[in-house]
Amino acid sequence: MKTEFSRTSNPRGLGKWLYKRCLEYYVSIVIDCTLFKVHRCGCGKVRSVEVKSAQGDHLYECDNLVFAAGTRTPQLVRELFPDFSRDFHETVNSGNWIIVKSTATVRDQMRAEVILDEVVDHQLEFVGRKDLATSHFVIWVCGLNDEETRPDGVTGEAEPDEDAIKRLREYAAQFLRNGQYALRDDPEVLEKGRTYRPTIDRELPIVTSVSCADLRGPRISKAKSHHVERDCAKSGIWVCTGHGRYGITLGLGSGKLLSQMIVGEQPDLDVAALGFPP
Length: 278
Ligand SMILES: Cc1cc2nc3c(=O)[nH]c(=O)nc-3n(C[C@H](O)[C@H](O)[C@H](O)COP(=O)(O)OP(=O)(O)OC[C@H]3O[C@@H](n4cnc5c(N)ncnc54)[C@H](O)[C@@H]3O)c2cc1C
Hints:
By secondary structure, the protein is α+β, with helices and mostly antiparallel strands.
């Protein structure tokens, strides 16, 4: 049995911290809007984007644009650049999960993650945390990936696999019984679901720039470019996806590498293997 602390035990806390840090760096955060058009210069480099929101359409000028839309990244890039020539090699990988109400006393509550993969021979994780909406102490139980059913277009969420949910309930009853549930008691399931992970058919994610040649599409001429010659070399489009099961853990590092590449610094790690799969 492996016991470890993970960012999954406090995802909201991580989100809040990131949000605060962004504001400290004068990052402007716009939500509830949809990117629907990318305008490029004659040389192929990105110039501006158009987003749609309840307040109407808005144009933002930009030099760089990062696509990090999780499972939707490949689809979004293909929609915006129909001639895009690279293959993401995305695969389907989802995790079924339930949230059960804990009956432990406050004194016994642990905000820890317990991984039982080696006990049951497949992924099985228990994470204890306080539900901010209800203030109940809850335990998130996840495992039993289901790769066989592919709904039309993978988005973020999918209907849970009821067989998997039943087994997760049984595991909850089995492993949480000590001080939680009597042996044959059924734990109270507050929520259930299945969520897709952005996965590609290799171990490493894609954290890379996209060349103008990969984007193809209409290209006028460098002579009509608004950029100086050396700035035309890159499209200004970047992709960060495919972290599969480890995106929460690796995301901060990938973000740092990407920011270093964008500002032209030497990345902390060799990024040669993080391009599009051949
Ligand atoms: C059940 C489960 C358990 C996991 N456990 C762990 C773990 O313990 N440790 C770990 O490291 N990782 C874990 N992961 C994996 C981790 O959650 C993912 O790798 C990570 O979330 C991927 O980050 P991302 O930013 O690429 O995508 P996401 O987290 O999916 O973020 C993409 C965001 O883009 C938004 N978006 C999509 N389309 C658009 C659009 N057109 N316009 C604007 N926004 C858009 C989405 O709404 C979403 O908010 C787990 C995943 C699952 C499903």
